[in-house]
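Lecture 7 notes: from sequence to structure.
We start with the chain below.
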Amino acid sequence: MKTVFLILSATLIIAGCNTSGKDEIMEFIPGTYVRAGQNEFGKEFDTLVISLQNPAAKEFKIQNRWHYIRQVEGEANVPEYKVKETSGIYNGETKLLEEAETLDHYSFDVKEKVLFDGTNKFKKIK
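Predicted structure tokens for the same chain:
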């Protein structure tokens, strides 16, 4: 009886140590991502700060900090700032983070350390 209990305990411990079931994308998501862009109308700077809010529900808090410097007739205007906070749910099957309000999807490239929001590419810095 004791032998069966020891074998069962060892099996459970070994199975619990198996890390192959971890989701690499989900572990990569929390962090700070940046993007900068420029056109004839101005310059913009985006920062996304994503943090795990509810691990059981795979829910993340998403904060978007936006900074825009509008150019009128070659002159830079006063910078505009916006901060938007929302949440998103990670789908383990599609490997996408879906933003709750707009239903935008964020995809991730772990090797390149980038996040994609449509055609916008953000580089992970933290």
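Points to note: The chain has a mean pLDDT of 85. The radius of gyration is 21 Å.
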